[in-house]
Amino acid sequence: MVAGAKPSHSGGPVATRPNVSVCMATFQGERFVEEQIASILPQLASGDEVVIVDDGSTDSTVARIRSIGDGRIRLYTE
Question: Which of 3, 12, 74, 75 has the most CB atoms at less than 10 Å from its CB?
Answer without folding.
Answer: 75
